[in-house]
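$ ./design --mode recover --in tokens.txt
reading tokens...
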């Protein structure tokens, strides 16, 4: 009774120590916008990635938007991204006035380098490489292509902080990289992000100027985010009862809690909270989580190994690539009748993940507004129709992951016999 429910996206990284940080942050009203925690997060990133300058933003979207501006990307230009992504990636391209061009993916659910050159035109300025679910893309092959065609390479590390490729940290390969500290990302300050540029002094200067011109979000926005871990700490144990769901509904209705994506973003519009600097109150939460990053990722990898061992022989369930350097932010399985399996889990009060059940997620994205043509990325669309994410978040217990495996077996037994 009153156990935390198994739910992939309800504040998955938050533990009591994070709640204490949020409470202290909330009480420290004079330091909500500016303060020393920002500097700590910046130092952490500088050391981890061996870069001279790091800039903090209030989201990955803000970070990407400012990076694109720093590279002078604008009207009449194209930026290649992959299909099987979140609308948060094409949107910043649209906000700067450029056009997103969608490349199909391979079975790692990342951009397929073998197909990439067919999307390059005279207007192509940059390629954004996403390391989906924390599985590294084939970054060396992609880098060769960007070098050959003189394109900017931006790494989208929203899912992959801490992953490596041939021993080198993801985020170290491109001309630039950005990160997200969103509520269900690798580390979380509810909203937040970071970006850096390597070896391009002119663009780095631009980024520094753009960052200086930004403001901090207002107090109301900051409070909404800081309250998030506190609210979930009380709501989650009640979530399996009507009371918990009702409280969450009320909090969202009176907009006491923020939504991860605003409706305007589904049509390529710019929401009011972008672009801003990362406020100090959230930098405090991010820094506290960064200190736990390697523990978090070791745990995620252990859970992924468990799924690999336990699910390998189940008919009609296909597992992600087994990559020892991946961090498996989510463990994405492919299954026919995905929605049926999702509903089956709901009967047991378990909420699995549906990133990217829509080829450009979430549901409701207007494809024509973000320049996506339905049917253009055949493989990505197929993967979107089959994908279901199993949780690997750090507080998932062995009992929880064992229960998930047990339910998948039960479902497969029932359905494969027919
Ligand atoms: C692959 C990917 N890139 C970028 C982003 C943007 O991050 P944020 O939510 O912090 O703006 C997201 C998350 O929505 C994402 O999933």
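writing sequence...
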């Amino acid at each position: 009774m009153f156990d935390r429910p198994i739910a992939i996206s309800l504040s998955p990284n938050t533990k009591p120590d994070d709640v204490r940080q949020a409470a202290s942050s909330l009480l420290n009203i004079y330091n909500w916008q500016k303060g020393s925690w920002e500097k700590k997060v910046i130092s952490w990133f500088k050391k981890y990635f061996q870069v001279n300058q790091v800039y903090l933003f209030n989201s990955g979207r803000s970070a990407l938007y400012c990076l694109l501006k720093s590279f002078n990307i604008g009207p009449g230009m194209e930026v290649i991204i992959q299909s099987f992504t979140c609308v948060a990636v094409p949107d910043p391209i649209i906000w700067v006035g450029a056009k997103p061009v969608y490349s199909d993916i391979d079975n790692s659910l990342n951009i397929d380098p073998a197909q990439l050159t067919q999307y390059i035109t005279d207007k192509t300025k940059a390629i954004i490489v996403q390391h989906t679910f924390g599985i590294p893309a084939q970054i060396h092959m992609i880098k060769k292509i960007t070098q050959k065609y003189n394109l900017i390479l931006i790494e989208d590390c929203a899912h992959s902080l801490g992953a490596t490729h041939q021993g080198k940290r993801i985020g170290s390969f491109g001309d630039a990289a950005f990160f997200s500290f969103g509520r269900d990302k690798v580390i979380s300050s509810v909203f937040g992000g970071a970006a850096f540029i390597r070896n391009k002094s002119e663009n780095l200067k631009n980024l520094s100027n753009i960052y200086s011109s930004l403001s901090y979000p207002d107090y109301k926005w900051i409070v909404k985010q800081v309250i998030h871990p506190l609210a979930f700490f009380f709501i989650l144990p009640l979530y399996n009862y009507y009371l918990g769901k009702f409280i969450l509904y009320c909090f969202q209705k009176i907009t006491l809690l923020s939504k991860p994506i605003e409706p305007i973003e589904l049509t390529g519009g710019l929401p009011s909270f972008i672009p801003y600097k990362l406020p100090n109150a959230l930098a405090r939460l991010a820094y506290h989580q960064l200190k736990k990053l390697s523990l978090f990722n070791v745990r995620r990898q252990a859970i992924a190994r468990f799924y690999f061992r336990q699910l390998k022989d189940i008919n009609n369930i296909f597992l992600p690539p087994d990559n020892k350097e991946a961090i498996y932010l989510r463990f994405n399985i492919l299954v026919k009748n995905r929605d049926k399996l999702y509903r089956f889990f709901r009967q047991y009060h378990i909420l699995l993940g549906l990133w990217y059940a829509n080829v450009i997620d979430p549901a409701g994205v207007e494809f024509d507004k973000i320049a996506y043509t339905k049917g253009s990325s055949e493989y990505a669309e197929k993967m979107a129709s089959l994908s279901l994410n199993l949780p690997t978040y750090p507080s998932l217990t062995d009992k929880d992951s064992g229960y998930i495996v047990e339910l998948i077996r039960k479902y497969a037994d029932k359905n494969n016999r027919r």
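exit 0
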